[in-house]
Amino acid sequence: MNSDKEANQETCELPIHTRDGEFLAQYSKKGLCGLSFPSRNSRNGDPLRDAPIQAQIRRWHEETTHALENALAGQPVREFPPLDLSAGTDFQQRVWKILKSIRCGKTLSYGQVADEIGDRKAVRAVGRACGANPIPVLIPCHRVLASKQKIGGFSGGLDWKRKLLAREGVLLLD
DNA sequence: TAAGTGCGTCGTT
DNA sequence: AACGACGCACTTA
Questions:
Q1: Is residue A114 part of a domain?
Q2: Which nucleotide lies closest to A119 by the C1' atom and the CA atom?
Q3: What pLDDT sits at residue A4?
Q4: A120: which nucleotide lies closest, measuring CA to C1'?
Q5: Which residue among A89, A140, A145, A159 is least enclosed by CB atoms within 10 Å?
Q6: CATH number of the domain that A152 lies in?
């Protein structure tokens, strides 16, 4: 577990409009710490609408926006904003780091990720860690498949996983 | 073979 | 103590 769990509760949420709907990016003082898929009920009568946004966060948000646009188009992301993954456990952070290394259009199996961690038997734990990924799409947990190129699962809904993989040209077996 | 069942194993709640 | 975004061995038809 992390010691400074409650330390920075201060986060700033900003929307990102895409052809796939309105994502929501969440920033801490350290960087991008969350990204959520479009949801129907997220029309915001935003009480903090006029709150001043720090220049640094605006800059990060620009980077996030560009990164997300590329990722949604199935193209490699050139530049990332700083990512704040400090909310995750050590194990989760190890998994997420491996996910970041999977290049666009490539995939790993849950088992292969477990191998890279150094413990094949941790396969199921890897699946759990993938599901806990706070920044989907940008941290490409959708590029982790079950064995034999089967789709596996996805916390954001399997439709999203299929869509993202299809745009990167990945073929599934299912 | 294709589809279904059972169980090992590990981090998290 | 119980539960998974798994994987493998092992039934069945």
A1: yes
A2: B10
A3: 41
A4: B9
A5: A159
A6: 1.10.10.10
Below-50 pLDDT ranges, chain A? 1-8
Angstrom distances, CA of residue A74 to CA of A35, A81, A129: 17, 18, 23
The set of catalytic residues of A is: 141
A124 touches strand B (CB under 7 A): yes
Same domain, A159 and A96: yes
- H-run or E-run covering A24: strand A21-27
A156 is in which domain, residue-wise? 90-167
Pair (A161, A100) in one structural domain: yes
Is residue A6 within 8 Å of A20, Cβ to Cβ? no
A2 touches strand B (CB under 7 A): no
Residue A1 has a pLDDT of: 38
A61 and A103 share a domain?
Answer: no
Question: Which nucleotide shows the minimum CA-to-C1' distance to residue A148?
Answer: C7
Q: Is residue A109 part of a domain?
A: yes
Quote the pLDDT of residue A173: 85
CB atoms under 10 Å from CB of A166, counted, come to: 12
Q: Count up the domains in chain A and report the number.
A: 2
pTM of the entire structure?
Answer: 0.90
pLDDT of residue A20: 97
Say whether both A103 and A53 belong to one domain.
no
